[in-house]
Every structure is written in C-alpha cells, then in structure tokens.
Amino acid sequence: MSLESKIQQDLKEAMKAKDAIALKAIRELKSFITLEKTKEGGKEKLSEAEEIAIINKALKQHQETYEMFKQNGREEQAQEEAAIIEVLKRYLPAQLSAEAIEVKIKDIIARTGAQSIKEMGKVMSVATQELAGQDNRLIAETVKRLLSA
C-alpha cells in the first residue's frame, strides 16, 4: 500500500472516529504531498524518499512549535502538538537502533574508503540516501565519531 493510499484510508478512519487531532495531522500531511506534486517541476508520483522528506519536514515544524509552547507554559497547545507528532511518526519507517545505524555506517565508510573527518560529506551523502527516514542528527554524530577515531 502506497503512502498516499494509507493516508487516504487513515483519513476516512479518523473521520469516522471523530478524532480531530488525527484529522488535522493527516489533512496537513495530505496537503504537503499535494503541494509537492503540484509545484512547478513537481512529479505525479513521489518517491519514498521524497515522501519521507515531507513527513520529516512536517515533524520538524511541529516539534519546534511544541518546544515554543512548552517554553511559554502553554501546556494544552503543547499536548496537542505532541499528539500530532505521534500521528505523523506513524508514517515514518521504523527507526533503527543506534547500534544498527553504526553497523550500517561502518559498512558505508568501508565502501567509500573514507579515512578522515574531511571525508564526512562523502559518507553523509551515501548514508542519508541509504538510511532515509532515520534520525539525521544521530547519523551525523555517528559518522563524525567513527571518522574521528
């Protein structure tokens, strides 16, 4: 099942369940996908990596909003943002453990032949493609640590 059909199915289920927060999150995600497809030079069918990038963008926006609400003591809005974040996370691929990411990065380093921190960009370009949907901050920290050793 493609992401778009899964979103459409979940939208129907959220409407039936009268789940306002899930509806809001799913409609926003659907809107982001439609915008990406209809922008100038957009494609009719998005790749999985492009879909994941859209979800990550939405997640990042909601996480920043959540942090702002938390800092300003607006607990009710912060809880709503946290609920939206949880709904959006359902559409991301399962997150690998730090150990699994490290194993994959060691393999990428061996394949690219990177020896020093100066070659981090080469490793990161391959790692972000192969580990799409994973925590980029964790990937970058792991690459940096392994190349510095």
Strand-helix topology:
Blueprint: H1 3-17, H2 20-38, H3 48-71, H4 75-89, H5 98-112, H6 120-130, H7 136-148
Protein model, in words:
By secondary structure, the protein is an all-alpha fold. It has two domains: 3-89, Uncharacterised protein YqeY/AIM41, N-terminal domain (Hypothetical Protein Yqey, Chain: A, domain1, Orthogonal Bundle), CATH 1.10.1510; 98-148, Orthogonal Bundle (Arc Repressor Mutant, subunit A), CATH 1.10.10. It has seven helices and no strands. Helix 1 (3-17) runs antiparallel to helix 2, helix 2 (20-38) packs across helix 4 (75-89) and helix 5 packs across helix 6. The model has no long low-confidence stretch (mean pLDDT 87).
Summarize it.
The protein is mainly alpha-helical. The chain has helices spanning 3-17, 20-38, 48-71, 75-89, 98-112, 120-130, 136-148.
**In oligomeric terms, what are we looking at?**
single chain
Q: If you average the pLDDT, what whole number results? A: 87
**Strand portion:** under 5%
Number of strands: 0
Rg is: 18 Å
Q: Report the end-to-end length measured between terminal Cα atoms.
A: 42 Å
**What is the CATH architecture term of the largest domain?**
Orthogonal Bundle
CATH topology of the largest domain: Hypothetical Protein Yqey, Chain: A, domain1
| Helix-and-strand structural type | mainly alpha
> Any idea what the shape is?
globular
The number of distinct structural domains comes to: 2
What's the number of helices? 7
What is the N-to-C succession of helices and strands?
HHHHHHH
Residues in helix, %: over 70%
